[in-house]
């Protein structure tokens, strides 16, 4: 980490209890409890900070313990993540925080432009192939019959695309990056959505259009259940990297994780 002070307040307390599995493409593995479900697994798709930010591992540990199934966190980027951890300090945390134009310009030139080669290297089609490859390997070597996927930010967009395949059975999408309504219309599994009050990546109208598309799909196919929750006072990123200085943001993070756990219990274990 090049700038430890830049991420203070964004790194969750505690140490991961799982392990990195080189034979599974470097994915992090959080095992189920001894009395857990052997035939169910969850894939956690990270934000642009990837595995170096330990939050995703801690969240995987908690999902594994409370859902009662194995959880895998793929190394989506197969190398350095798209954004360095220091970029977190440049992002707003609460809905009432509005960056100035100068702050946005500084963030874009300081973090986005330098990351463009990594964005290209990790474009959607490439990342989707990596996820599909890991799922194929897990299906070949593990007794899993059902998969859930939860994605955050960059991983949220990937989760939307993954939900249009036959590779998973349920999905949770938390403050995704850019996506199309046609991608939502192509989804074929039950879905749960967690939105911030203010999102630089998704407009309020886009959320309304998403909910309309989901309602339309459920009307023609009742098995495609969905839920959509907004967390007041939050900004993009709250469900994956809450600023611990703000109790209301931490509470929203905890509730979004509870939402994820409940959804997988309902759709994968029910």
From TrEMBL:
Keyword 4Fe-4S: no
Domain Dienelactone hydrolase: 32-267
Database matches in InterPro entries: AB_hydrolase_fold (IPR029058), Dienelactn_hydro (IPR002925)
Keywords (A to Z) from UniProt: Hydrolase
Gene Ontology MF annotations: hydrolase activity
Signal peptide: none
Keyword Hydrolase included in the entry's annotation: yes
Protein name: Dienelactone hydrolase endo-1,3,1,4-beta-D-glucanase
Species of origin: Ephemerocybe angulata
């Amino acid at each position: 980490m090049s700038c430890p002070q830049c991420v203070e307040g964004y790194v969750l307390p505690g140490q991961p209890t799982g392990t990195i599995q080189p034979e599974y493409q470097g994915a992090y593995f959080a095992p189920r409890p001894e009395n857990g479900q052997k035939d169910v697994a969850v894939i956690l798709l990270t934000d642009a900070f990837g595995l170096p930010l330990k939050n995703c591992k801690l969240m995987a540990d908690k999902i594994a313990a409370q859902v009662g199934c194995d959880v895998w966190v793929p190394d989506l980027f197969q190398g350095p993540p798209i954004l360095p951890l220091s970029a977190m300090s440049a992002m707003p945390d609460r809905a009432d925080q509005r960056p100035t134009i100068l702050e946005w310009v500084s963030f874009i030139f300081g973090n986005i432009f330098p990351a463009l080669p990594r964005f290209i290297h990790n474009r959607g089609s490439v990342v989707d192939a990596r996820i599909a490859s890991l799922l194929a390997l897990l299906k070949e070597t593990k007794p899993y019959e059902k998969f859930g996927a939860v994605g955050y930010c960059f991983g949220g967009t990937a989760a939307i695309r993954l939900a249009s395949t036959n590779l998973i059975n349920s999905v949770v999408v938390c403050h995704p990056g850019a996506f199309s309504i046609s991608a939502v219309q192509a989804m074929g599994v039950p879905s749960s959505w967690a939105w911030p009050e203010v999102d630089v990546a998704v407009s309020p109208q886009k959320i309304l259009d998403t909910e309309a598309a989901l309602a339309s799909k459920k009307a023609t196919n009742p098995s495609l259940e969905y839920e959509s929750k907004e967390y007041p006072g939050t900004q993009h990123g709250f469900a994956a990297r809450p600023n611990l200085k703000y109790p209301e943001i931490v509470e929203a993070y905890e509730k979004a994780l509870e939402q994820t756990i409940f959804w997988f219990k309902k759709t994968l274990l029910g």
